[in-house]
Amino acid sequence: MEKFYQETLHKLETAIDELEIEADNSMQRIEAVMQLVIQSLADLKEFVLKNDFKNMEEEIHFFKHQKPVIVSKLIYYNAIYKIETRRPYGNKRIRKHFTKELKKLKRFFDSNIDFYKYYRSNNSFVDEKFFVRGKHDIRLWLDTFYFEADHRFSTSHDYKVAKIIANDLIQVYLEDRLNNINEKKGSDNSLKWTASKTALTELIYALYAHGVFNSGNTDIKLIAKAFEDAFNIELGDFYHTFMELKARKINRTKFLDNLCEALIKKMDEQDEKQ
User: Fold this and answer.
1) First and final CA of the chain: distance in angstroms?
2) What is the value of pTM for the model shown?
3) Cβ(30)–Cβ(80) under 8 Å?
4) Where do the structural domains in the chain lie, given as residue ranges?
5) pLDDT tens digits along 213-261
6) Residue among 143, 168, 147 at smallest CA distance from 75
């Protein structure tokens, strides 16, 4: 079992490292990683069902220390995928979003503090009930997940261990992202947008319509986010603002027209000085 597990883990981590280097789109990379983890778990399950364990000690070791390492990767990447796909725009809302996710981790910790103490203290006196198949005790902190799992490849607490490992990684990820936001906030950014948000939205959509970023292959949301970060501003529902611009009866491009007039005036002034 040990040899097959180590080979499976090494193969998985090598493939993940390669994706980290090669894949450009972070969401596509996470999807690919999750598929790799799912396949690795399928390979492990097939091996266990065919060969079983030599003794109870090997079974406990597998479900307490080995399987959770791989399952934790699936939990981690799935959580990051959800966090990033649900991430709002604007640093203030992003900070609130990440803080909310950290609170979820804290709630899990508070709900499972007894098992946290048991696991992190390297205790083993209840391992036979926690990490041997078919030995569950309904009084010992069981998750609903266990009753839906395949009991040929699950114990009452191996998933909980994986969750603990994953949550530690998720916490590091979230805190790192929050630190990045706070560093940006604290940096000396002398450029502040002092015109209206409507004016900035008009400018963003004009640049988007003209395809000036990435040969026109950039999503409007990414452009808006770049401007929000650059000028420390939250545009809110900029699509609704754009719809209001479209609905104008007169001068739908008021800000852009004013830009043109200001630039021409500046040029004329320069010519007069020469």
Assistant:
1) 85
2) 0.68
3) yes
4) 2-186, 197-273
5) 888 888 888 888 888 878 878 887 888 888 888 888 788 888 999 999 9
6) 168
